[in-house]
Write a structure and sequence with these properties.
Number of domains: 2
Largest sheet: 4 strands, parallel
Helix content: 40-55%
Oligomer: single chain
Strand content: 5-15%
CATH architecture of the largest domain: 3-Layer(aba) Sandwich
Distance between the termini: 61 Å
Strand order of the largest sheet: 4-3-5-6
Length: about 200
């Protein structure tokens, strides 16, 4: 496809989305092209307005249509139980599981000194302030099981140690339905370290 081609342009733009390769971007482009033009206009308008319509929650950092997200406004949530996550998609995944009824604190990143991301680049002061003002009794750190995620988890625990808040880490191990022979060594090691009596 030559330059100036609107199809190639849309394929290129869609291909920049995470998890979308050229083949998927091409399929999506032709799907939009084959759909009713009102769908394409609605999709375009929604994309164009997303930054103006979505706000970051002033309490936890989640995304929503209002200054305070639905989770922070929900009186049924346990305010004294916080879950620290790196990004909003992590929060969404935990919510989808239905296994957590507390509130969240989104860091919007992880400690990564090699990339120039230090403690001052994350909302850790806000986390400490929330622990003090909301009477938080436990903070569950649910950062990824990566070098950056582990470093962030350890730093969060260190920052909260003087506040006498219980800090716990999500467990990790063999996934449900997973085969042991295909499980990596670190995951297997964590599974044995975190074993519980039956």
């Amino acid at each position: 496809m030559s330059q100036g081609d609107p199809i190639a342009e849309l394929v290129s733009l869609l291909g920049r989305l995470p998890g979308i390769g050229e083949r998927t971007a091409t399929r999506l482009t032709f799907h939009v092209l084959g759909s009713d033009p009102t769908y394409a206009r609605a999709l375009g308008e929604s994309l164009a307005q997303i930054h103006g319509r979505v706000k970051r929650c002033t309490i936890c950092g989640n995304y929503g249509a209002e200054e305070t997200c639905a989770i922070c406004r929900d009186p049924r949530r346990e305010a004294e139980l916080l879950c620290v996550v790196a990004r909003v998609p992590d929060l969404v995944a935990i919510e989808r599981s239905g296994s957590f009824r507390g509130r969240y604190h989104v860091l919007h990143g992880l400690l990564a000194p090699l990339d120039g991301v230090g403690p001052d680049d994350l909302p850790l002061h806000d986390l400490v302030a929330r622990c003090e003002s909301d009477g938080v009794r436990e903070v569950v750190v649910a950062t990824p099981l990566s070098v950056e995620g582990e470093a962030t988890a350890l730093y969060v625990a260190e920052v909260l140690r003087p506040k006498r808040v219980k800090v716990s880490r999500i467990a990790s191990g063999v996934p449900h339905g997973g085969e042991l022979e295909f499980t990596d060594q670190i995951t297997l090691g964590r599974a044995f370290a975190g074993r519980k009596p039956l």
